[in-house]
Amino acid sequence: MASDTDPKTAAYVVAVVAAVLLSAVLAPVIWDYGTRSDGNVAVVSITGFVSSSSVDRVAEDLREARENESIDAVVLEVDSPGGSAAASEQLYLAVRRTAQELPVVASVRSMGASGAYYGMLPAERIYVTPASMVGSVGVRGTVPPPAPNYEVRSGPDKASGTLEQRREQIGTLQRAFVGSVMEHRGDDLAISREEVAHAKVYTGARAVDNGMADRIGDRTAAIDAAAEMAGLSDYGVVEKEPPRRRGIVLASTTNGTVVVDPGVGYRHVDTTRFLMVHGEVDLDGEVIANASA
User: Fold this and answer.
1) By the 8 A CB rule, do 63 and 32 touch?
2) Which residue from 117, 134, 124 is spatially nearest to 177, judged by alpha carbons?
3) pLDDT in tens, 20-29
4) What is the DSSP-derived secondary structure letter of residue 287?
5) Per-position b or e across 115-126, b if 16+ CB within 10 A of its CB
6) Where do the domains of the chain lie, and which CATH numbers do they carry?
7) Strands of the chain, DSSP E
8) Model pLDDT, residue 30
């Protein structure tokens, strides 16, 4: 039996079906384009003890953010008592370089003290919670024991140093630390340079009052601020994984402290250690940083 369908009608139906199928395929692409964000904010974590290995990974994350055209701003998510003085200075330099190219905002969770505070100084704004702990602008150092009698040295100062020399070295590091605080936050500080140098640690609420921090707010507030600084009204958030720790092992203990393996420097060789870390330190076999202090 012959079909009564008009060839023109059949062609029209085929065209309509094809158009519907094509629109179904293209619709997600058009929708994606229509809702595409203006840019992205990268979140880089600075957690735990500041060591050379952890800073290497943070510096790499920051480098990737600077070189990635889709990243328009960076938020530093900080939860650290500080650590090695040398590593803290490297962290500071990596953050400063990033802040010269992108808006950088810091967000302190529970602690951003000593070397960790040093590292986030170049950020345009520091967000804290009322109970966050920030500050502790100071340096501490250890003196290695006298050389054993069986050791022969090429000179009297080879791998040694007097207590006065150690104090001078710590003083140099301290002046650099305090100087950086005054450079980045001097216009906002309600406390003197001398009080900054006392290395006090402040709660987040107090830090906002005295200018050591800028705003009370959580990570979301910091991300929003970074996006606004970058001129983004619609943006995505790119999470960067916290750096894996090697060489320095941290473990929570029952009394709320963080025990840090003192594997910094050379194995079985006593060396002078300069630390920018807030908390108690016991160098007889281990370093203990009290995270709740």
Assistant:
1) no
2) 117
3) 444 444 433 3
4) E
5) bbbbbbbbbbbb
6) 37-289 (3.90.226.10)
7) 39-50, 71-84, 104-113, 125-128, 133-135, 140-141, 201-203, 215-216, 235-239, 250-252, 258-260, 274-277, 287-289
8) 30
Burial class (CB in 10 A: 0-12, 13-18, 19+), 237: middle
Q: Which two tokens stand for residue 209?
A: 């009052």
pTM of the model: 0.72
Whether the Cβ atoms of residue 201 and residue 133 lie closer than 8 Å to each other: yes
For residue range 166-205, list pLDDT tens digits in order.
788 888 888 989 999 999 999 999 999 999 998 899 999 9
Tell me the C-alpha to C-alpha distance, in Å, between residue 195 and each of 114, 138, 212, 265. Answer: 14, 11, 11, 32
Which residues are CB-neighbours of 180 under 8 A, at least 6 positions away?
Answer: 92, 118, 121
Judge contact between 286 and 261, C-beta under 8 A.
Answer: yes
